[in-house]
Amino acid sequence: MPDLPHGDENDAAVNSIRSAVMRLGRRLKHQRVDESLSPTEMSVLGTLARCGSATPGELARKEYVQPPSMTRIVALLEAKGLVRLEPHPDDRRQKVVSQTERAEAMLEESRRKRNVWLASLAEGLDDDEWAKLRAAAPVLEKLAHL
Asked: How far is CA 25 from the centre of its chain?
């Protein structure tokens, strides 16, 4: 790992954050509403919710998967009634993927369930730890979107 501006202290912090985020992320993935969807399918629905409609190619880039894989994922989601495909307004060779109301409701319920689980986990924090967590939230959010 390249040296960070302040050396060992930052290296240790980066290692700790990476490890904690990965463990917490794995645990959060298990708090799903619909067990029939893979984590990748849920991630695609989340991307559509955050970014709006997109072509399969755009989704593949955002999800870091190959376009043929995204085509299969979109087909599975369409078969489950969670996305719809419509003609691209400028390029009839392409399709635009949009989430359905059913997907929106499922994502909202999934967020609610995960928030409840995370809040119950955080009940073990003291006031000082809560303050630090609230202060860290915007920084972690920024890192997630860089």
From this structure: 10
Complete DSSP assignment for 26-79: HHHHT--S-TTS-HHHHHHHHHHHHH--B-HHHHHHHHT--HHHHHHHHHHHHH
Residue 8 has phi, psi (to 5 degrees) of -60, -35
Residue 85 and residue 120: Cα distance in Å, rounded? Answer: 38
Residue 56 one-letter amino acid: P
Tell me the backbone φ, ψ of residue 5, rounded to 5 degrees.
-50, -30
pLDDT tens-digit series, residues 105-114: 999 998 899 9
Residues 51-103 pLDDT 10s: 999 999 999 999 999 999 999 999 999 999 999 999 988 888 889 999 999 99
Cα separation of 131 and 86, whole Å? 46
Pull the structure tokens for residue 79.
Answer: 């078969």
Contact assessment for residue 100 and residue 74, using Cβ atoms and an 8 Å cutoff: no
CA of residue 22 relative to chain centroid, distance: 13
CA 67 to chain centre: 19
Question: Rounded CA gap, 25 and 75, in Å?
Answer: 26
